[in-house]
Each structure stands twice: as structure tokens, then as C-alpha cells.
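Quick one:
INPUT:
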């Protein structure tokens, strides 16, 4: 969704949960190893049922309103960028959406920059923002690694008339706090927690692994996840920061499982966490007793769902964050922020649901469930680094 602190909430994107109750799955709701004794019948797997409905109605209205308002306008002075939190497979669809938005607007490639920090480091992100400012960017969308650390830079940019749009992760306490395009993260976390509650049968001990303990999307997802356990016998044993690194997430999960034999649930709050946790659980030989709920539609995550190692994943719409984000940034420059904010529907979140059937094929994973990629969109790019001409970016093993 697109949120303003004081006035308007323009809904655009939300989350749904994909799951698979595999017939051959041997996990039991209590988390015990269902195959521990010969001749013992395995407990039936818990089906996570629901819908796969995004907030498409308000999203379509917002896109149509932006396109209508910008029709015939002079966009020659628009120079925009999309800055995400890490180079990740998750953000490939976002990059494609951003470039498609620029193309549909008629903005030259040289004035559409996409940047993903190769190592997911705050210094990399801050350095890019300084570069963009020096190059005369008129606006940028950003998934901030640390909103507190970014506050000073954002203040400087806003004072200079540069439009700043929070995507994926809100920017509380900054000059850009009033505008947000993305998933309502606390609700997404609550969906993940509800799924975990179901597969654990309302009792157990879980650990949370996340790429940052300060980023707004992470803290909100964790808060929602924990809120789902109210009134249950589920406790959170640990919250671990894997610093946006898949290898670290796997190692941390292995340590947690080795030192806490009673942990029977793992929640991965960033896109790379699903496969990373699945690898750890598989290596520990605990696929029958440890349940995993993750975020996002990484191709490996979908494969692990199909095999029953991951119980479910909450997925988002990174393509739309890129595509609609490009239109919002252009509108802010040409129409002004107030007129841009007046274009969308008010206070709708249109939350999605869950599905108990097999997830879509891994290729192309985002388009079939969480990303409405147009048939004429460019293929997801590969490569590394920042591209001033809208070219390829890195696809490392970490994500939002």
C-alpha cells in the first residue's frame, strides 16, 4: 500500500501465503518426528488454506489515476532512481517493474537508475544516495537498510526538493515518513505467525532469523509474527540478525537447532531466509520435526514448499513496487507531492489470504503468484552493481 502519515493511504500491494500440504509430508502439528518409531502412523500434515487475492482493485485505480494525470505532461526533467536494500533474486522483479514503468512513461534509460548494494551494507547504500544527489536525481524510492541512519541523508535530500518514496520498508522518524509503497508488514508478519501457529498446533518454541533488527519492515514483521501467538503455548526463543547474508542465516539456524533441541519452528523474515533455513533443517536431519515459515517467493523457497520442508511463505509484489514507484516519483516531480497524494483511494489495505494447493512453477516464480508481470516486460536482468542506464544489477543470495 501507499501510506501517508497524516492524510491518505493509497493501497497498492499486500501479501499472501503460499503453502503445500503434501500427501507424503511426515511433519506433525506438535513438531515431533512422526517417523521416530516403526509401525507408528504419521500424523496428518496441517493444511494452510485460504485465498491468493492481492489488493488489485486499489492498485489498478492508483495506476490508472497516475497515468491519466501524467498524460501529455513534459517529463524531460524527471530523473529517478530505485535503491533497494541488497542485491537479491527477490528484487529482480522490482527492477523489471521499475524499468518498465520508466519505459511506459517515456523516460530515457539514462535517467532511470537502479541500485542494489552488493553486500547489503549501509555504507554502500549511503554512498549511492550521495552519488545520485550529485548527478541531479529528482526523486528516488528506497528500501532503507536502517531508517535511523538514513534520516540525515533523507532530510538533506527533501530540503533540496528531491522526492523520497519509501518502498518495502517504511521510513518512520524521517522527512519521508508520510509516503510508503509496499506491504503492510505487521499484517504480513501476523499471517506468517498464524501459519506457524497452525502447523505447530498452538504449542512449541520458535526462532526468528532476519536480515536486520532495525529496518522497519523487519521489526514490523516480527511484531506481527509474535502477536499471532497471543493465547497460545508458543514462545519465541531467539531473534537473530543474519546481516542480509544467506550463508550466515544457514549457520545461525544450524547453531540454534544444535543448542536448542526443543525448537520446532523457524521463521525467516527475508527472501533468502527460506532456502537458508531449509538447508539448515535438512542438514540437521530435522525436516520431520522442525517447521519453517518464510517470506517471499524465491525459486528455491517454492521448491522447498513443494517438497514439504517449508510449510508456507508470505509473498509480496516487488514488480509493482518498482513499476508504480516510477510513476509516483515522476508525478511528484511534475505535479507536486500534494496533487500526487490526492490521486489514490483512501485507507484500504485489501489483505490477502492463504492457499493450500501447490505453488506455481518456480519459473517465473514472481509473475504467477505475487507479481503481475506484463507479457511485454523485459526478462529479469543479471549482473552486478549500479546501473545509471537502467541496466543489470547484482543477484546475490540475500533479499528483502
Amino acid at each position: 500500500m501507499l501510506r501517508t502519515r497524516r492524510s491518505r493511504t493509497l493501497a497498492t500491494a499486500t501479501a499472501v501465503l503460499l503453502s503445500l500440504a503434501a500427501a507424503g509430508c511426515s511433519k506433525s502439528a506438535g513438531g515431533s518426528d512422526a517417523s521416530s518409531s516403526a509401525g507408528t502412523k504419521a500424523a496428518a500434515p496441517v493444511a494452510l488454506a485460504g485465498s491468493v487475492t492481492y489488493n488489485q482493485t486499489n492498485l489498478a485505480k492508483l495506476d490508472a489515476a497516475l497515468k491519466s494525470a501524467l498524460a501529455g505532461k513534459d517529463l524531460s526533467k524527471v530523473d529517478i532512481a530505485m535503491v533497494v536494500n541488497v542485491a537479491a533474486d527477490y528484487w529482480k522483479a522490482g527492477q523489471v517493474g521499475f524499468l518498465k514503468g520508466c519505459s511506459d512513461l517515456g523516460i530515457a534509460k539514462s535517467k532511470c537508475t537502479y541500485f542494489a548494494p552488493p553486500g547489503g551494507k549501509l555504507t554502500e547504500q549511503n554512498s549511492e544516495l550521495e552519488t545520485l544527489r550529485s548527478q541531479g536525481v529528482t526523486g528516488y524510492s528506497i528500501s532503507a537498510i536502517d531508517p535511523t541512519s538514513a534520516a540525515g541523508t533523507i532530510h538533506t535530500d527533501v530540503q533540496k526538493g528531491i522526492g523520497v518514496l519509501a518502498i518495502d520498508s517504511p521510513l518512520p522518524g524521517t522527512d519521508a515518513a508520510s509516503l510508503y509503497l509496499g506491504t503492510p508488514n505487521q499484517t504480513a508478519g501476523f499471517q506468517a505467525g498464524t501459519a506457524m501457529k497452525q502447523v505447530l498446533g498452538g504449542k512449541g518454541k520458535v526462532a526468528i532469523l532476519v536480515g536486520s533488527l532495525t529496518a522497519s519492515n523487519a521489526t514490523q514483521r516480527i511484531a506481527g509474527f509474535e502477536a499471532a501467538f497471543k493465547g497460545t503455548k508458543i514462545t519465541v526463543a531467539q531473534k537473530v540478525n543474519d546481516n542480509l547474508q544467506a550463508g550466515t542465516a544457514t549457520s545461525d539456524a544450524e547453531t540454534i537447532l544444535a543448542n536448542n533441541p526443543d525448537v520446532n519452528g523457524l521463521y525467516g523474515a527475508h527472501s533468502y531466509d527460506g532456502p537458508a533455513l531449509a538447508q539448515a533443517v535438512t542438514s540437521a536431519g530435522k525436516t520431520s520435526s522442525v517447521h519453517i515459515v518464510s517470506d517471499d517467493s524465491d525459486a528455491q523457497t517454492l521448491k522447498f514448499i513443494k517438497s514439504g520442508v517449508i510449510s508456507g511463505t508470505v509473498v509480496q509484489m516487488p514488480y509493482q513496487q518498482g513499476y508504480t514507484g516510477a510513476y509516483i516519483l515522476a508525478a511528484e516531480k511534475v505535479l507536486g507531492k500534494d496533487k500526487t497524494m490526492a490521486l489514490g483511494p483512501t485507507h484500504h489495505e485489501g489483505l490477502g489470504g492463504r492457499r493450500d494447493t501447490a505453488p506455481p512453477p518456480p519459473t517465473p516464480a514472481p509473475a504467477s503468484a505475487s507479481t503481475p508481470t506484463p507479457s511485454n516486460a523485459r526478462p529479469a536482468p543479471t549482473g552486478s552493481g549500479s546501473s545509471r542506464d537502467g541496466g543489470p544489477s547484482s543477484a546475490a543470495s540475500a533479499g528483502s
